[in-house]
C-alpha cells in the first residue's frame, strides 16, 4: 500500500512538473498529440483568444470548427482561413443548439478530436452584496455552465477518438475574486469540472486539461478593468501579475498543452510557481487585499455606485 502511494505521488509530481514548459523539456517529452489533421471544436471563436487558437491551429494543419453566438464574425474568420475551417452558430447557454453544432461538426469533418471550451463573458465590477442577482447568475451561466454544456455536447465524439478536452480557465481559479466574484466562482468551478472529467474520462482514453491563464490583451480583460474603482484593486497587486500577455502567447500556450495532453496549462511564466504554492500565495493575497486602503476604497465606491443606481431607478433625486 505504501509503495502504491509513493508511486502515485511520483507519477503526479512528474505530470505536474511536465506541465511547466522548461522543466517538462528537461524531463523528456510527454505523449504527443499534434493538432495536425485533428478536428478542433472551439467555442467563443469569433474573437479574442478563441479566434487566435483557431488561426494558430489551422496554420498547423488542423480542421477548425468555429462555434459562437454570432454567425457573421465566425463566417468571416472561416472564409479568411479557407479550407479546413467552418462556422457553426450556437450559444453555450443553449444545450440543444450546442448539440446541433457538435453533430454538424461530426457530419462535416467526420469527428471531433479536441474540444476547446473557451466561451466566456466579463463580470460586472460589483460586490457580492450589491451585484444584480441576474448579472451574477448570467456570468455563472455562461462561464461555468456553458463549459459544462460544451463538453457534454461533444463528449461522445471525443470519446470515440480518444481525444483531448481543454477547459479554458484563469488564475481566478485561485486568485481572490474581489469585485469579480461571479467570474472567480465560475473559473474555480470549471477547475473542479476539469479535474473530475480527467478522472472520469481516463478509462476512455480521453485526457482533460485546465488552462490557468493570466490576464490577456483582449476585449474581455479590458472590460474587467473598465471601471475606475477596479483600478485600485489592480494597483494593490504587483504589476507583473496583472500585466497582460499577448493573445498570441496565450493561444500558443493552450495549443502546447494540447500537444502534450497536459492536465495543467499555465501562462505567463509566473503562474506555474504561484499555482504550485497556491495555499501560501492565496493566504498572502487575501491578507494584502483586506488591509489595502485602495481596495477598501474601491469596495466602498462600488457599493456607493450601486446605491446611487438603485435610487435613480426608483425615480428619487437628492434635494
UniProtKB/TrEMBL annotation:
This is Short-chain dehydrogenase. Belongs to the short-chain dehydrogenases/reductases (SDR) family. The keyword Membrane does not apply. Keywords: Oxidoreductase. InterPro entries: NAD(P)-bd_dom_sf, Sc_DH/Rdtase_CS, SDR_fam. It comes from Mycolicibacterium arabiense. Gene3D superfamilies: NAD(P)-binding Rossmann-like Domain (3.40.50.720). The keyword Cell wall biogenesis/degradation does not apply. GO terms for molecular function: oxidoreductase activity. One of its GO terms (cellular component) is membrane.
Amino acid at each position: 500500500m505504501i509503495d502504491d502511494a509513493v508511486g502515485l505521488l511520483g507519477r503526479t509530481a512528474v505530470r505536474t512538473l511536465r506541465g511547466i514548459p522548461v522543466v517538462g523539456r528537461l524531463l523528456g517529452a510527454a505523449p504527443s498529440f499534434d493538432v495536425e489533421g485533428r478536428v478542433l471544436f472551439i467555442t467563443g471563436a469569433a474573437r479574442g483568444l478563441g479566434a487566435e487558437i483557431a488561426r494558430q491551429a489551422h496554420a498547423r494543419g488542423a480542421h477548425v470548427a468555429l462555434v459562437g453566438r454570432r454567425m457573421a464574425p465566425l463566417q468571416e474568420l472561416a472564409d479568411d482561413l479557407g479550407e479546413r475551417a467552418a462556422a457553426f452558430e450556437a450559444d453555450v447557454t443553449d444545450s440543444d443548439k450546442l448539440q446541433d453544432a457538435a453533430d454538424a461538426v461530426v457530419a462535416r469533418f467526420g469527428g471531433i478530436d479536441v474540444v476547446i471550451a473557451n466561451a466566456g463573458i466579463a463580470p460586472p465590477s460589483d460586490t457580492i452584496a450589491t451585484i444584480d442577482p441576474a448579472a451574477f447568475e448570467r456570468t455563472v451561466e455562461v462561464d461555468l455552465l456553458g463549459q459544462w454544456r460544451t463538453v457534454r455536447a461533444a463528449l461522445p465524439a471525443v470519446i470515440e477518438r480518444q481525444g483531448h478536452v481543454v477547459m479554458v480557465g484563469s488564475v481566478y481559479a485561485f486568485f481572490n475574486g474581489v469585485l469579480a466574484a461571479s467570474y472567480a466562482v465560475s473559473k474555480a468551478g470549471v477547475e473542479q469540472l476539469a479535474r473530475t472529467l480527467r478522472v472520469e474520462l481516463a478509462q476512455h482514453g480521453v485526457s482533460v486539461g485546465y488552462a490557468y491563464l493570466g490576464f490577456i490583451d483582449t476585449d474581455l480583460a479590458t472590460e474587467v478593468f473598465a471601471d475606475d474603482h477596479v483600478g485600485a484593486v489592480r494597483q494593490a497587486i504587483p504589476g507583473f501579475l496583472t500585466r497582460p500577455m499577448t493573445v498570441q502567447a496565450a493561444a500558443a500556450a493552450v495549443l502546447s498543452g494540447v500537444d502534450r495532453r497536459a492536465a495543467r496549462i499555465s501562462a505567463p511564466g509566473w503562474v506555474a510557481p504561484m499555482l504550485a504554492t497556491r495555499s501560501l500565495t492565496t493566504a498572502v493575497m487575501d491578507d494584502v487585499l483586506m488591509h489595502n486602503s485602495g481596495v477598501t476604497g474601491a469596495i466602498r465606491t462600488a457599493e456607493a455606485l450601486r446605491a446611487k443606481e438603485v435610487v435613480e431607478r426608483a425615480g428619487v433625486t437628492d434635494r
